[in-house]
């Protein structure tokens, strides 16, 4: 069972908790590191393992944990399940911010077609715009972002809709995409 990290990751994400011992013996997960499935998947992505098929094995909470760890890797402060009163109660799945920008993330761990994603992006942009004055407490600019568990990547009315395993690429190329993205101030 402990032949490779990839095999142990696959086993652990499919529910075999004994694979955690393998991951620790192989040096993939340290004794003091979290053992959540979202964290293990983040470590797999960081280690160059194709995580595309493994993301489907996470539940929505683990999916959010995975996303939080990726943003933290890029130096962002991260909070989740942020509730604000903006002319009615609003909840944001993940907010990741640094000194320049706050990404306000809607996470979706389900399948959907391009038309459905456009609808999600529209609703998210309205929600972010409605709460903009409060979200500006995180950073001088705010960008709405939808992160999915499906293989997609496009920008709808300024809102990027990207696959979870492409977050790093998106963050690395954000400055090149700034003119296409709704950056609110």
Describe this protein's structure.
The chain is α/β, with parallel strands linked by helices and 185 residues long. Helices cover 41% and strands 22% of the residues. It contains nine helices and six strands; from the N terminus they run αααααβββααβββαα. The protein has helices spanning 5-13, 19-25, 37-46, 52-55, 60-73, 114-130, 132-135, 167-172, 174-177, and strands at 77-85, 89-97, 102-108, 142-148, 153-156, 159-163. The protein has a six-stranded mixed beta sheet with strand order 1-2-3-4-6-5, sandwiched between helices. A hairpin with a 4-residue loop joins strand 2 and strand 3 (102-108). Helix 1 (5-13) runs antiparallel to helix 2 (19-25) and helix 3 packs across helix 5 (60-73). The longest helix has 17 residues, at 114-130. The termini are far apart. The mean pLDDT is 90.
Task: Describe the structure concisely.
41% of the residues lie in helices and 22% in strands. It has 185 residues and is an alpha/beta fold. α1 runs antiparallel to α2 and α1 packs antiparallel against α3.
Defining key terms:
6 strands, six-stranded mixed sheet, alpha/beta, 185 residues
* Beta content: 15-25%
Q: What sequence of helices (H) and strands (E) makes up the elements?
A: HHHHHEEEHHEEEHH
**Amino- and carboxy-terminal Cα gap:** 52 Å
Rg estimate, integer Å:
17 Å
By DSSP, the count of extended strands is 6
Mean pLDDT: 90
Shape: elongated
- Give, in spatial order, the strands making up the sheet with the most strands: 1-2-3-4-6-5
Low-confidence stretches: none
Number of helices: 9
The main β sheet shows up as: 6 strands, mixed
Helix content: 40-55%
Structural class: alpha/beta
């Amino acid at each position: 069972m402990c032949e490779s990290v990839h095999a142990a990751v696959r086993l652990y994400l499919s529910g075999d908790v004994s694979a955690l011992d393998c991951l620790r013996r192989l040096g993939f997960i340290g004794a003091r590191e979290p053992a959540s499935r979202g964290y293990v998947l983040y470590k797999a992505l960081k280690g160059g393992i194709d995580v595309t098929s493994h993301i489907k094995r996470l539940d929505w909470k683990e999916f959010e944990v995975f996303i939080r760890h990726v943003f933290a890797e890029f130096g962002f402060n991260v909070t989740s399940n942020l509730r604000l009163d903006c002319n009615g109660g609003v909840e944001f799945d993940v907010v990741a911010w640094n000194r320049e920008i706050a990404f306000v993330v809607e996470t979706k761990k389900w399948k959907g077609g391009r038309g459905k994603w456009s609808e999600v992006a529209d609703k998210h942009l309205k929600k972010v715009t409605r709460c903009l004055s409060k979200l500006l407490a995180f950073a001088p600019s705010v960008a709405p972002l939808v992160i999915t568990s499906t293989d997609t990547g496009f920008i709808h009315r300024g809102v990027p809709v990207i696959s979870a395993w492409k977050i790093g690429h998106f963050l690395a190329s954000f400055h090149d995409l700034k003119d296409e993205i709704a950056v609110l101030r």
